[in-house]
Amino acid sequence: MTDMTTLPGPERRPVLMVRPEDHRRALALRQMAMAYADLPRYLLLPEVSALLHYLPDWSQHALVSTLWNTGGRINEVLALKRRDFRLNGDYPHVVIRTAKQRRAGTGRPAKGKSANRVVPLSDPGFVDELRRLFASTRERIETDAQTGERRPLPIWTATDRTVRNWLTRAVDEARRDGVTFSVPVTPHVFRHSYAMHHCYQHTPLKVLQALLGHEKAESTEVYTRVFALDIAASQQITFSMPESQAVSLLKETHISGAFLMQK
User: Fold this and answer.
1) At 120, phi and psi to the nearest 5?
2) Ramachandran area for residue 124 (φ above 0: left; ψ -120 to 50: alpha; else beta)
3) How far, in Å, CA of 240 to CA of 238, rounded?
4) Do residues 176 and 168 lie in contact, with contact meaning Cβ atoms separated by under 8 Å?
5) Which of 43, 56, 66, 161 can pair with 47 through a Cys bridge, CB separation 3.0 to 4.6 Å?
């Protein structure tokens, strides 16, 4: 549903351009999926970008951008520290401590499983945003009163409720400006949106499973079920033909078959 173009200026980085007709088609697909309670609610790329416009606070903007660019759960993103991000080099990425695996059993991941997952940060604009954020703020450190050990604190001090309040204010501001969203905007909706955006970019299921930190493929397949609706609809496969033509075809086939058997 997207085309690539290049921004003017010294950066000349590629950006996605969404055609209006493709956006309308994607909206129609989502409306169809919303009829089923077990399918995820998600935002499309233009909607997320528009919502970010109404988050002028740089820290709030960066947090929501991180939810969107990583597919992280809200508690995973709120636990991120600066050292979890690797913004230099050819492959910027973030190391996310998978929350559900951290809570499993005694706190240790199962044998052969890692409690961490690596998520590439493929959008240059987001990487630049994080670099500016880290350059303009000082990392917070706490000192253990007993041992004197110095530990870095998470980047954001917000709670789940605080982030929900940010999003509510942004949605209200957008509505006053004539911009509305057809699904409720919550922190978790960005995880669904991330997954569906990958589906639109044809990311393989196994890769998406690893990016989301799903232990079982069944958890990831819910997104491909939505995308399958779009693929099936776009094929425009017909299941009918003129009935009289079908009758004539079968009669002709029967006659031809009988003739061959006689020979």
Assistant:
1) -65, 145
2) alpha
3) 6
4) no
5) 43
Per-residue pLDDT of the chain (263 residues), as tens digits, is 445 444 333 344 445 556 776 667 767 777 766 666 677 888 989 999 999 999 999 999 999 999 999 999 999 999 999 999 999 989 999 999 987 654 444 444 455 455 899 999 999 999 999 999 999 988 888 887 777 788 899 999 999 999 999 999 999 999 999 999 988 999 999 999 999 999 888 899 999 999 999 989 999 998 888 777 766 666 667 788 898 999 999 988 876 665 555 55
Which token pair is 193? 């949106």
For residues 219 and 192, the answer to whether their CB atoms sit within 8 Å is no
Long-range Cβ contacts of 81-87 (<8 Å, 24+ apart): 81/152, 81/153, 81/154, 81/155, 82/134, 82/139, 82/152, 82/155, 83/152, 85/121, 85/130, 85/134, 87/121, 87/127, 87/130, 87/131, 87/134
CATH code of the domain in which 173 resides: 1.10.443.10
3-state secondary structure of 118: strand
Q: How far apart are CA 70 and CA 85, in angstroms?
A: 11
Does residue 17 lie within any of the structural domains? no
Supply the range of the domain harboring residue 157. 33-262
Catalytic annotation, residues? 73, 100, 188, 191, 214, 223
Our CA dihedral for 70, 96, 210, 163, rounded to 10 degrees, sits at -40
pTM > 0.85: no
Is 47 part of any domain?
yes
